[in-house]
């Protein structure tokens, strides 16, 4: 069963698409069957993985959510054998209006993903830079979410707004969603403000911040224009090393989560198991009148 992770932050330019594409590529490199789902009308994640926009105008995430198209027909291969992409285009801008009148509008994406939940290990959703209905759909479908945060002054304010939105979604739509982690991006160790913001975030969210920090890196900026994730464009770069470490953190966390779930038997199970060990069915003779 796929684990769905939404990459979300209503603030633009913080590295959402860069994180979506490169994290997914690193998970795929670890032999995890991974799908990037581009939920941003700009379609940058689609282009960053080498797709030509003309190739998917008739079958993309818009058609799966709004047009009733089977999502399996909207998925395309990439250079990495374990990595697929469900692209988007400008039609998603109109989807906001169309969804307003739709029944169960917050769950359209969740319903569309049902047929492929057993196909992938991970589904990474690249959410748009807003707290729109598209983002709500992404968070409603997800098991967890990652917040990329640029180490700048207004980072904390944007995080507070997003956490409040997720809290409402958890209360009313998706009770299982949890914070996968806060990912510090575009970090420049020479900048005192970047160090200050990073320390502030780690102080407030010590258990929820990834150990790995994504540095400012020229190769990370260049690779989307070549239609390649960083591990194909330059595996030796600092950016590739950082995203490989983020993928490792997520995989190890998932393994710990599975072990924890297996070890936590319900109270009923414990009682049943205990009774099976200690309770003996009496023979018929014991019920006979003396």
The helix content, as a percent range, equals 40-55%
CATH topology (level 3) name: Rossmann fold
Question: Helical stretch count?
Answer: 12
In total, the number of domains comes to 1
Q: Please write the string of helix (H) and strand (E) elements.
A: EHEHHEEHHEHEHEHHHHH
Oligomer: single chain
- The structural class is alpha/beta
Q: What is the CATH architecture annotation?
A: 3-Layer(aba) Sandwich
Strand order of the largest sheet: 3-4-2-5-1-6-7
Query: pLDDT under 50 segments (min length 5)?
Result: 275-290
The major beta sheet can be summarized as:
7 strands, mixed
CATH homologous superfamily classification: P-loop containing nucleotide triphosphate hydrolases
Mean pLDDT: 88
Strand portion, in percent?
5-15%
What is the CA-CA span between the terminal residues? 59 Å
Count the strands? 7
Global Rg: 22 Å
For this entry, give a set of tags.
290 residues; alpha/beta; Rossmann fold; seven-stranded mixed β-sheet; 7 strands; 44% helix; 12% strand; disordered C terminus
Brief summary of the model shown:
This protein is α/β, with parallel strands linked by helices and 290 residues long. The chain has one domain: P-loop containing nucleotide triphosphate hydrolases (Rossmann fold), CATH 3.40.50.300.
Account of the 3D structure:
Helix 1 (16-29) crosses helix 11. The chain is built from 12 helices and 7 strands. It is α/β, with parallel strands linked by helices and 290 residues long. Helices cover 44% and strands 12% of the residues. It has one domain (3-287): 3-Layer(aba) Sandwich (Rossmann fold), CATH 3.40.50.300.
């Amino acid at each position: 069963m796929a684990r769905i992770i939404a990459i979300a932050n209503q603030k633009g330019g913080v590295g959402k698409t860069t994180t979506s594409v490169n994290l997914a590529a690193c998970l795929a490199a670890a032999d995890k069957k991974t799908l990037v789902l581009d939920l941003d009308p700009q379609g940058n994640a689609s282009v960053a993985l080498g797709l030509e926009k003309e190739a998917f105008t008739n079958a993309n995430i818009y058609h799966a959510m709004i047009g009733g198209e089977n999502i399996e027909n909207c998925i395309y291969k990439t250079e990495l054998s374990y990595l697929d992409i469900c692209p988007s285009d400008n039609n998603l801008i109109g989807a906001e209006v169309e969804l307003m009148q739709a029944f169960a509008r917050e769950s359209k994406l969740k319903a569309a993903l049902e047929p492929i939940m057993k196909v992938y290990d991970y589904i990474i959703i690249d959410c748009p830079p807003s707290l729109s209905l598209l983002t709500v759909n992404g968070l409603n479908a997800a098991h967890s979410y990652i917040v990329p945060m640029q180490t700048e002054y207004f980072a904390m304010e944007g995080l507070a707004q997003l956490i409040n939105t997720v809290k409402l979604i958890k209360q009313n739509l998706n009770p299982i969603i949890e914070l996968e982690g806060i990912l510090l991006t575009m970090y420049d160790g020479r900048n005192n403000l970047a160090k200050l913001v990073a320390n502030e975030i780690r102080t407030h969210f010590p258990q929820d911040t990834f150990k790995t920090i994504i540095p400012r890196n020229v190769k990370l900026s260049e690779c989307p224009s070549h239609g390649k994730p960083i591990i194909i464009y330059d595996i030796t770069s600092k950016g590739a090393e950082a995203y490989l470490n983020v993928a490792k953190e997520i995989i190890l966390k998932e393994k710990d989560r599975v072990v924890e779930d297996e070890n936590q038997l319900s109270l009923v199970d414990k009682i049943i198991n205990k009774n099976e060990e200690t309770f003996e069915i009496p023979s018929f003779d014991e019920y006979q009148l003396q």
